[in-house]
Amino acid sequence: MERKLINGYEHVRYQRPEISENELIKNSEEFYQQMNTRRTVREFDTRDIPLEVLENIIRTAGTAPSGAHKQPWTFCLISNPDIKKQIRQAAEEEEKISYSQRMPEDWKADLRPLGTDWEKPFLEDAPYLIIVFKQSFGTEKGEKVQHYYVSESVGIACGFLIAAIHQAGLVTVTHTPSPMNFLSKILGRPVNEKPFLLLPVGYPRQITYVPDIHRKSLEEIEVKY
User: How does pLDDT run across 17-26, given as a tens digit for each residue?
Assistant: First the structure.
C-alpha cells in the first residue's frame, strides 16, 4: 500500500474502483429507492435476530466521520429482558409527564396523525435496543481528551445506524424520551457520556400499520445555485 508523510503523519493512498456515469446513476437511484421504503415502525415481532447482524449494523455506524476523528460515541446493545423492562418503565414515566404537562397542545396535535402516545411497548417487544451515547470528552491513560463537534458527529453516526438497520431488513423507531438521564443511571454509563438516541431494533409485527404520510419532493428540499 502506497504511503506518504503529511505534516509528519503517515497517510495511505485512497483507492476506490472508478465506475461509469451510468453505474453512478444506477447505484444512486437504487439506494434511494431502497431507503424510500424505510418507515418508522412501532409494532415489533419478538423473534430473535442473530447477534452478528446487530454488531455489523453498529460497525457500520462506527464508520461515520467525526470531528478530528475522535469518534465520540458509544453504542449500548441491550437484549436483557430485565433491563429492557426497567428502561420501558422509566421512559413511560417521563413520557406520561411530557404528554400531560410538558408538551404544548400544538405539539400533541402534530403527533396525533402518527398514532403515538406515552405508552412504549416496543421497548420490551423489540429483541434489541441500541442506545447511543455521545461522549462530551474522551479519556486516554487517565487523561481527559478534547472532543469536537460532538452532537454533529453522533448525529451523522445515527444516520448511518438507521440506514444500516433498514438495509439489513429490519425496522426501528427513533425514541428520545425527555429527559433521558435515567438511561445513564440504568446502564451505569460514565459521566462523560450523555444519552443521545434510543433505537428499538427488530422485525415488524406480521400485521402492522404505519401512518399514510408522504415525504417532501425534491423540489421542496433542494435549492440549486
Answer: 999 999 999 9
